[in-house]
Amino acid sequence: MIAIISSPSTDPTTTEPASGASTHTSPATSTTWTIRVLLPGPLRALAHIDGEISLDIAAPSQRGVIDALDAQFPALRGTLRDAIKDRRRPKIRFYACGRDLSHVEPDDRLPDAVLDGAESYLIVGAISGG
Amino acid sequence: MSDGVRVLVGTRKGAFILTSGAERQEWDVSGPFFPGWEIYHVNGSPVNPDRLYASQSTSWFGQLIQRSDDGGKTWAPVGNEFHYAGDAGNHQWYDGTPHPWEFARVWHLEPSLSCPDTVYAGVEDAALFRSTDAGQTWVELPGLRTHTTGMEWSPGAGGLCLHTIVIDPTDEEKMVIAISAAGAFRTDDGGETWKPINKGLWSEGFPVPDGEVGHCVHNIAMHPKNPDVLFMQKHWDVMRSDNGGASWTEVSGNLPSDFGFPIEVHPHEPETIYVVPIKSDSEHFPPDGKLRVYRSRTGGNDWEALTNGLPQEHCYVNILRDAMASDTLPSAGIYFGTTGGQVYVSPDSGDTWQAIVHDLPAVLSVEVQTLS
User: Fold this and answer.
1) A15, exposed or middle or buried, with CB in 10 Å at 0-12, 13-18, 19+?
2) What is the rounded distance in angstroms from the CA atom of residue A36 to the CA atom of residue A52?
3) B356 and B18 in contact (C-beta within 8 Å)?
């Protein structure tokens, strides 16, 4: 499932998306971004997902992505983030825009290209022969 | 479904369900369920045989618990958060230094004997959890982990794991559990308090070979008609207790090796027990390359080799601690799965054997439901 992602509205009070605009509502209410996410194969199977998904996130950060995934796909809870340690699982890495975001602070802002929907947020499991 | 059996198989790369009628000759094979995931254990409620629980995990994505309400046809994930109560503290690491208690995986699921929504989970690092809402939430029974000896517990090579849970059918408040490598423990109050039950165990080479704790117990079995009689396969030695674990005596007798992992009791003969000897703690394969199940009809000491239908040359597989089980049909069936991917059945208490399947991924666990 791939959503049609387009550039954000320049009017922060917009509630109805203009033609070609992403879901982006007034900062006085709630703000969301719709991004593209690609999960590793075993988790796509677990959550019954085909290919890349579009995901609405309430916070423009990696923590926001994980929170949104957990909310929309309860089967994924605990698979990306250790619920006890509240940390990324060591064999999971996060990439976007050609960069490894795995060691970026979880609340740092995602790249604009991800938030704009131009680039996917990639979740990758360690490659192993086992 | 008419009389028959459902064999629940956990493997390194998924779960399988094998079903057959009472003759146990023709088999249907379903799976793999959860392909690619380690399935440490699949077990069913004795109260509602359609209620199954599975421990699904990988080192990539952590732990999931799956539940089926239709005998394994369909599954759905339930709760997977196992939080230690309070400050988890430390146990001993391999090198004797303090090491934080950290959840790794669920080794064993033991449904209640009276309620299909209640199920116990034995986990690594060793602790006992219970769910009373069919797996949606899990709460630790901290009395075990916080036992005064807890800080002394150290892991075996496979981790500090609570791998065996035996519930007394006459009184569910009474349970025996086993931890590698802390030993066996018993509760008489539903898990509130525990005491080590390792008197009589001897662990050669340990600084304190007969210590209160620190023994690598591999598996414990009990016949429901004799809950005070327990059988143990230890890291070396087959043991027996006639007093609920208060003391143990060795019954290895004439076994070719007393090293092994599983131990099983015949469902209708409380003094008939089964083990599968392997050569040693480093050579985890049958002595002489011959796969032999050993049966004692005297509760130990006197053992006979069961080989009819089992490979007697070039066989170097292992049978893990949770990979042996029995059904309760009149002609009792004994089952085991191997690290080579075979699952064997004997429909006649061990006299003859046949392979149900040959080429599964390495088998981690076998449980059997008798259906009627």
Assistant:
1) exposed
2) 7
3) yes
* Nearest chain B alpha carbon to A79: B61
CA-based nearest distance A109→chain B, Å = 25
pLDDT tens digits, B325-363: 999 999 999 999 999 999 999 999 999 999 999 999 999
Residue B103 at interface with chain A, using a CB cutoff of 8 Å: yes
| pLDDT the model gives residue B43 | 98
User: pLDDT tens digits for B277-302?
Assistant: 999 999 999 999 999 999 999 999 99
DSSP A31-97: --EEEEEE--HHHHHHHT--S-EEEEESSSBHHHHHHHHHHH-GGGTTTSEETTTTEE-TTEEEEET
Residues 6+ apart with CB under 8 A from B108: B40, B41, B43, B55, B121, B122, B162, B163, B164, B165, B322
CB pairs under 8 A between A and B: 46
pTM over 0.90: yes
Q: Does B77 touch chain A (CB under 8 A)?
A: yes
**Do B100 and B35 touch, CB atoms closer than 8 A?**
no
Residue of A nearest to B60 (CA): A91
Distance CA(B250)–CA(B269), nearest Å, equals 20
Residues of chain A in Cβ contact (below 8 Å) with chain B: 40, 42-43, 45-46, 74-75, 77-80, 82-84, 89, 91-92, 125-126
Query: In terms of CA atoms, which chain A residue is nearest residue B65?
Result: A75
